[in-house]
Amino acid sequence: MLDRRRMQLLRAVVTSGSVTAAARNLGYTPSAVSQQMAVLEKEAGITLLERTGRGVRPTDAGRLLTDYAAVIDRHFAEAEVALAELRAGRTGRVVVRYFATAGATLVAPAVAALRRGRPGVQVELKLSDPEDPLPEVRDRLADIALVVRPPAQLSVDGIRFVRLLDDRYFAVLPEGHRLTAKQELDLTDLADEPWVGNDQPGPCLAPVLDACGAAGFSPNFVVESGDYATAQGFVAAGLGVSLIPDMGLGSRHPGVVVRPIRNPEPVRTIYAAVRDTTPVQPAVRRLLDALREATAVQRDGR
């Protein structure tokens, strides 16, 4: 196998015109250079240099390797620059899985900020609803997954959870409902109301059911909807009340009234799930920083 360093030394000899000149330029002894050229010829299995008076000239094989040495040197330099860019987080590829309500509020501003500061980082986005994205993160098919997770389920082999945001639930009432006269509701105020469901059983519905259980009742779901916008439409039509997280109220239906809830206040916690590796890849770390900044904006805007 040819040695890259010896090929670069051959290039120096050919460019300088002699072993002595190459040795002088590189700070080696002529004998050391000659020895390395002898080893390279043995590796190549063919004569690389011919003596011409006090100098040398390359054979066809020597000229061939000299040309390739120049190409290799250029590509090696480019590789070093590319590696430095990747190491600094200025390039790379990040695969992200997210759920719907986190898209516009957290993911979109985070990716936009990353592209402004790190345009060389490529971000691949895919909606994960309704699948659990954690296996993709664990199997290296995704780098970051935004998830809602209860505290009791934060121990997952190979996964680290970065807490981003506590997303409070609000009561959504039809206009003219008797409870709209109150500026803040106790959860028990909704105990005897018909409810509009907006989530499948899972981590987003669990905080609502747990809070209702703590308040001593189970909600009476009379209508099921697949998303928060549809749930607001059902509420506006007078079919029931609903609890919707703050991030799900970005597009508010004109026919509903929103009120905060207390005693207890349902909250879902949003995490960024990443592989439990050290260190985190630079581009992934940059996007995590951007997600934290988007989270701070969301929190401060409440």
Outline the structure in words.
By secondary structure, the chain is an alpha/beta fold. It folds into 2 domains: 4-87, Arc Repressor Mutant, subunit A, CATH 1.10.10; 92-302, D-Maltodextrin-Binding Protein, domain 2 (3-Layer(aba) Sandwich). It has 9 helices and 12 strands. It has helices at 4-16, 19-26, 30-44, 60-87, 100-117, 134-138, 206-214, 228-236, 282-300; strands spanning 49-52, 55-58, 91-98, 120-127, 144-148, 159-174, 185-186, 194-197, 220-224, 242-245, 256-262, 267-275. Helix 5 links the parallel strand 3 and strand 4. The chain is rod-shaped and about 105 Å long. The two termini are 65 Å apart. The relative contact order is 0.14. The model has no long low-confidence stretch (mean pLDDT 91).
CATH architecture of the largest domain: 3-Layer(aba) Sandwich
CATH domain class name of the largest domain: Alpha Beta
Task: Tally the helices.
Answer: 9
Low-pLDDT runs of 5+ residues are: none
Main sheet makeup: 8 strands, mixed
Kindly, what is the distance between the CA atoms of the first and last residues, rounded to a whole number of angstroms?
A: 65 Å
What structural class do the secondary elements suggest?
Answer: alpha/beta
**Annotated CATH topology of the largest domain:** D-Maltodextrin-Binding Protein, domain 2
Count of distinct structural domains? 2
User: Considering DSSP H and I runs of 4 or more, what fraction of the residues is helical?
Assistant: 40-55%
pLDDT averaged residue by residue? 91
Order of helices and strands: HHHEEHEHEHEEEEHEHEEEH
Beta-strand content estimate: 25-35%
